[in-house]
Amino acid sequence: MATKNNTTSLSIAEMREFAGFSPCEQRFIRRNLDIGLGRCDAFKLWARNASENVDIRRQYVAYQDLKVLRHTMPGADAGESVSPFMGQLSRLAAFDLAQERLDGFSPFRFLYERLLGAEVRPWLPSAFCAGAAMPHLRPARRKLLLQSLSEAAATAPAWSSRPPTFFPEYVDLADEAA
Predict the structure, then answer these.
(1) Are 105 and 143 in contact (CB under 8 A)?
(2) H/E segment holding residue 109
(3) Would the pLDDT of 178 be above 50?
(4) How far is residue 29 CA from its own chain's centroid?
(5) 74: burial class by Cβ within 10 Å (0-12, 13-18, 19+)?
(6) What is the pTM assigned to this prediction?
(7) Confidence at 13, pLDDT banded by 50, 70, 90
(8) Contact, 153 vs 105, CB < 8 A?
(9) What pLDDT is attached to residue 173?
(10) How far apart are alpha carbons 84 and 69 in whole angstroms?
(11) Which one of 54, 113, 154, 173 has the fewest beta carbons within 10 angstroms of its own beta carbon?
(12) Taking 70 as the threshold, does the pLDDT of residue 162 lie above it?
């Protein structure tokens, strides 16, 4: 019974966190989870115009690296093996942050925990900083992103290995109203 209550409490906390993100961030997270986890045909569900079709196609291509990242996640004492992993993860972070639909570390972490699993948590602050500091981002954008990483997240001595429980999905508001 205690395990069920803990899982329920965790799910509610994750739902509250997601509800605190902007509508743009929520949409981006849902869409990217559909693409990255292969939950549906994102073109049919998410594309509202030709420009979004192009964005979704680019996301599918970029997210091909997720398969490799899931199977090559290094341990905390990885040494040399961390380089290829962090290179791919940082490139993916830079790609997502350049879309300008995630305005801070919290929605970034929320998305990537679900795309790659709880094991990626210790690597996310570094990947986020690398992606947010890329020169192709506008200086004001880089500043906004980098300032969103709290000292606690940047210097955490340990990370939870508990997997996420809430995976937000597409909601058709027309169906909701009916």
Answers:
(1) no
(2) helix 105-116
(3) no
(4) 7
(5) middle
(6) 0.90
(7) very high
(8) yes
(9) 64
(10) 9
(11) 173
(12) yes
Distance CA 168, CA 48 (A): 20
Task: Determine the Cα–Cα distance for residues 155 and 68; give it in Å rounded to an integer.
Answer: 27
The total number of residues shown for the chain amounts to 178
**What is the torsional sign of CA 85, 104, 140, 48?**
positive
**Structure token digits, residue 166:** 């809430």
Count CA atoms closer than 13 A to 100's CA, side-chain side: 8
Amino acid at 147: Q
Taking the C-alpha atoms of residue 138 and residue 99, their distance in angstroms, rounded to an integer, is: 12
- Please name the helix (run of DSSP H) or strand (run of DSSP E) that holds residue 8, with its range, or none: helix 2-19
Nearest to residue 136, comparing CAs of 163, 98, 167? 98
Instruction: Tell me the CB-side half-sphere exposure of residue 65, using CA atoms within 13 A.
Output: 17
| The residue to which tokens 């490799």 are assigned | 68
* pLDDT above 60: residue 77: yes
DSSP string covering 20-69: TS-HHHHHHHHHHHHHHTT-S-HHHHH--SHHHHHHHHHHHHHTTHHHHH
